[in-house]
Amino acid sequence: xxxxxxxxxxxxxxxxxxxxxxxxxxxxxxxxxxxxxxxxxxxxxxxxxxxxxxxxxxxxxxxxxxxxxxxxxxxxxxxxxxxxxxxxxxxxxxxxxxxxxxxxxxxxxxxxxxxxxxxxxxxxxxxxxxxxxxxxxxxxxxxxxxxxxxxxxxxxxxxxxxxxxxxxxxxxxxxxxxxxxxxxxxxxxxxxxxxxxxxxxxxxxxxxxxxxxxxxxxxxxxxxxxxxxxxxxxxxxxxxxxxxxxxxxxxxxxxxxxxxxxxxxxxxxxxxxxxxxxxxxxxxxxxxxxxxxxxxxxxxxxxxxxxxxxxxxxxxxxxxxxxxxxxxxxxxxxxxxxxxxxxxxxxxxxxxxxxxxxxxxxxxxxxxxxxxxxxxxxxxxxxxxxxxxxxxxxxxxxxxxxxxxxxxxxxxxxxxxxxxxxxxxxxxxxxxxxxxxxxxxxxxxxxxxxxxxxxxxxxxxxx
Length: 463
Description:
38% of the residues lie in helices and 24% in strands. It contains 14 helices and 16 strands. The strands form two sheets. It has an eight-stranded mixed beta sheet with strand order 1-10-12-11-13-16-14-15, with helices on both faces. It has an eight-stranded mixed beta sheet with strand order 3-2-9-5-6-7-8-4. The longest helix has 35 residues, at 6-40. The chain is elongated and about 80 Å long.
């Protein structure tokens, strides 16, 4: 007797369709709860207010960074997490000293004061400062082409701007950050006495933007001071050089590098109900530069990450995996916190499945980038419809984040929250990166978006 398999197949497909539909409804309801709770009963903005206005800039190794560790540890404990602890990490200690001073001097002796700030990690100028002729270049290749004869004894002015036509502003930043990071080391090879670097910002203003720089293997006695000049200052200096190529530039800075000091990553977790020994991480970096509050970079990412765990507890969600929040120390000038966390995870033989970082400002969330394989990315794409009501539409393969990057090779998925980045570099590493520049609602939307992605990965797992 021949038995038809068609009815059985149809029944199986029907049951599968009903199951998928029920999951979609459940997920939609959960995302709605997360967004509603974040927008009506959020905590992230209050946390950021305290970090920014009561503590301020949190440069690695500083007293303020120590205060931030103690504050966030206490707040995580207040949430009633299953475990909160500090992970020791040695970090560099560099101080800016007295405010920098600079002026442009014409051949007739007229002086125009201009706004600069020392780059992080720079050596100081001599006590009386440095005054020398200026050579403007657009990048490291042009510098090398000029050679020692034209550069020795000069101050090198790197003036390659971020490309305004690039919609992805992080791409524009990446296109010229080498002159800030390696500019001093390269200029020293040709006998230059100092470098001035155009601030990495798309906005024309008077705020110089600091940031990390490196001397590489340059001997200590051959290192030259490096500073950033505001975008308005850079345009003015460049225009004057066209008229007066032999003008002089003077600058003085008092920065100092000390021995490494101990600091901490701040970690809290909710223990997984079915997979307690498999970890999912959400985090940002607790340190910032010292010129301002570091509200966007990266106070916003820290409080959003803390909020993810608070939201789960608030809506009563019990995760399958252990969910960790990690507030990394020293992303800005060493990445010591991210490296230490990955080192300890490997030493303890911990299984990490997923990590999400927020380090692109507290602006309106647009979506995520994912460093993962095709199977996991396909799973992410199946969730796009769940995010559509919240105007989250950007799901692309790409970069996860600096602090979670050291986990690569021992983790399935690295992801980065991607807010609208058009204004980010207006504030990045500058004195205007303050609490008042952060919009409460945008910050809360970012936290809810992060919580939603963590929820979905926790529920459905990784491939």
